[in-house]
Amino acid sequence: MSEEKHKDNNSRRRFLKLGLLAGAGTVATGALLATGKSHAEGSGETVKVLTTSGEVMEVDKNFLTLAPVDRKESHEGIPGRKFVMVIDLAKCKNARKCVESCQKGHNLPKGEEFMKVYLMQDSEKSAPYWFPKPCYHCDNPQCVSVCPVGATYKRSDGIVLIDNERCIGCKFCMTGCPYSTRVFAWKHEEAFDSKQPYSPEKGVPGVEGTVSKCDFCPDLAREGKLPYCASACPMGVIFFGDIDEDVVTNGVDTFKFSELIRDRAGYQYLENLGTRPNVYYLPPVDRQFPVDRGYESLDEDIKARYDNTPYVKNRKNKEKKS
Amino acid sequence: MKSIRILFFVVILVALQTVSYAQNEKAADKSGPAETGMIFTCTSTSDDSIQLKAVINVKHEEGAMLLANAVVKFFVLDAETEISLGEAKTDFHGAAILRIPTRNKFARNEEQLINFKASYEGSDKYTASEGEFGLKPAKLMVSFYEEDSIRYVKVIATQYNADGSETPLGPADITVSVPKMISMLKIGAISLDSTGIGTAEFPNDIIGDSLGNLTVIASIEENDIYGNVLGKSAVKWGLPKHLISPDRPSRELWTPIAPLWMIITLIVMLAGVWGHYVYAIVQLVMIKKASPAVKEEETT
Amino acid sequence: MSKTTTDDLMREFAPQLEHTGLKGKIWIALLFTLVLLGIFALYWQVSRGHIVTGMRDNVVWGVYIVNFIFFMGISYAGALISGTLHLFHAEWRKPIIRMAEFITVISLLIGPLYIMLCIGRLDRLPNLILFGRIQSPITWDVIAISTDIIGCFIFLYLAVLRDLGKLRDFSELKVPSWQKKLYKILALGYEGKPEQQIRLKRATDIMAGMVIAIAIIVYSVLAWIFSVTLQPGWHSTIFGPYFVIAAVYSGSGVLIVAMYVFRKVYHLEKHITVKHFINVGVIMLVLAAFFGYFTFSEYLTKWYGSEKNDEQLIRILFKDYYFFFIFSNYVGVLMPLIVVGFKKLRTINNITITAVVVIIALWMNRYLIVVPTLESPYLPIQDARAAWAHYSATWVEWTLTLGGVASFCLFFTLASKLIPIVQVSELKEEPKEPADIYLR
What we know:
- The complex is a heterotrimer.
- Chain B is of the alpha+beta class.
- Helix content of chain B is 22%, strand content 42%.
- In chain B, the strands form three sheets. In chain B, strands 1, 2, 3, 6, 12, 13, 15 and 16 form an eight-stranded mixed beta sheet that branches. In chain B, strands 5-4-7-8 form a four-stranded antiparallel beta sheet, with no helix packed on it. In chain B, strands 9, 10, 11 and 14 form a four-stranded antiparallel beta sheet that branches.
- Chain C has one domain (2-377, 411-426): Up-down Bundle (Formate dehydrogenase/DMSO reductase fold).
- Chains in contact: A-B, A-C, B-C.
């Protein structure tokens, strides 16, 4: 759960804050967390921990906090919560740490991304900006409506999960989602052979021939932690919280959700489609970084993705002329 | 002449070998124990105790990992000596916690701060690390009152001096916050007056639990003198929180159970169509029954 | 009187059932080989995962779904044409209704196989029944297609019943004894007795009406699988009727090709004349007009409104799929109008060539409905991998397409060996009114 690259001051303050939280926060949250049934030893997922004898131990999460949730239990949401995410487009510089840490947390192969970062440009004359896009966990989820077997479902805490043991791989949900959020496991990956018991809340191990997507990391939320993407972002772009509690945080700053949306003119993407998404965007006003910064530092194969955007085409034209 | 030259070269070679061997040894030493780091903080909490917390992490290629089951020894630094306070093992979050009472007779330095030290001895796999933290024990008492239908939160801050007396706290920044799901929401800031008392207006739109209860925490963070101080209290000034989000319908396109009209339409259509099939099949059965072979059987 | 004619017909058609010439055997062997190749490709796909197809995260439905829609579409031709002609008491339909009914049933068997090829976890297929959700258009489709298959089978059986009786009674028939026994069992003791005739007529009338209704409903459900999603290009209000019209249109084309082939192979020139070709050709012409109208309506509204996503779709259609678009929407519409519209051009060969063009044009039209929309989603496809941005079908998909077409032809051929491809029994055998019988 350690963050990798942080400015030192931030890291220490953040750490202290989280440390203080451990004491004070658990009292408040403990009353609201689900009492997940604890499973027998040996089940559940593990955390890598170093012991003094120098072993890297995979410790069953039983010893840490709550046990992972099985397929039937995963239909119940975390009681008393309704999750919301706010993404600050003004600060995103396409560091892609969100993408990478999510891939790591869900054992995804390199080409598969649950969190995708697009280079968007709303119209010809408007400025391009980086657009991180997780699953929006819509309140009117088209993907759930069209699933013929009920493999994907919306819980009371707002999270839309996929049960990869029931999914038949018809891919109707992939055509139903207007935000191109879902990805399909087209072939067998090594990571699928892991002996971990499967939990829809973690989505690991994956299953060949089924659909998966961003899940707002409910396994982390049960422990009072932020999703992988929110913790990993070096700019604090991704805020996560409970909309009924009206609070979102990116790990460093905490805001009242309603105030944040009001003061920064938060909006939902393509909300006219009637999907009622649960991810809000703060418009790219007073940008911290120019788009060039996020583009130039990329690897070639990732850079190639954006070749068809007006921004990159303009760049290439300018380079040709000069 | 020749032999001297040969001898010369042999000596050079041996010298080079020894030097490289020594360097290898050093390198081997470098790949020995992994480097650890400790973050040591102390907090005075409102239950009259000081929490000493040491978190040990290990620098790894994949990043820092937390070290569990490590024994951390805690000390108070008194002039030149170290008085042992006890020891604790790090848990799986890498944190070792020890609590000591706030009212204590530990030695103080010139600025009236108690200096704590935590040390991890290390092992053959891990280097040793230690941390120091100095603070003057303090206490924050949180209370609430209402005046002219405006709500206030009041904090009385005191510090514990070396002679055991409790005096008002000096100037410090106090943050008033409410713990939420993952983090703390800051709802106000208080500056203390000379008597160590400060108030702030309490906002009316903070959402609490389903009954409106709120836990309010006043905190001082990373103060040069007082370190970290926490004071906690509860009040029923929050807006009630829905336990289930109010707009959750029971029969929609995306719910497990379909809308009633869909079920009824489906049943009616299926009944209509399959009813006709049954009719046609019945006709076929009757055709068979009316065949001469069967009729013969019936008559004989 | 009628009995002699029927016997003559039986003598004429008996050779079809009794032996297969060398050409026939080669034909069947060829089809069988193609089917085996298809099965190999299926094995390849099942063992290596869907990565061997051209489908990727954006274009998740490709050639398989196109084939599925196409085969389901052909089946409605049989249903609608034979059902409608039955209800209209059109006399000229007699030589061709058997073919139409066969087309219906056989394509209904092959179409659903293509969905299964598109499903990622075939081992979980029972989930569709165990955990089916009524709100999902795919569940509607599962229910509808199963209902349709049963209904069309019943309809075919009712239509074939009297022929089965004739086959059972025709003593000169030289077929293996198991086949004779089969006829006896399937004929259900039908002797042409008045009571049996009445019952058969009732059942057939009801099923003819049902088959028309079911065909329309089932194909609309299939259209709604696309139109209820939000994808620009699919989210159209006229998809239901559009698909139904296109389906019957394609079916009429297949019927004409079947008529041509069987006429040549079984020497049915006496029974299937140019008049039949012209009549079905006229049906094809009318449907071409409707199809052209619907297609034009679709693209006109998209183009005129010039909504951003519609524009993107149209741009892709004209850039990457130009040939497909012109062929399916212009040639496919105009050719029948011209060939059947002008008296001079109405020859059997011309009409058959037009029918082939129509079949290909409609397959392309289905392709244009499924794939380009998926290549122009709301969020721009920003992916460096070419396969993710643009769909191109692999050998696995083409082999399985060929295998499906081959199975269709194979089943058709084998069916024609079991039951005469031209209806043997008189159309008029059934009394017009039950009262006729009791007037003796």
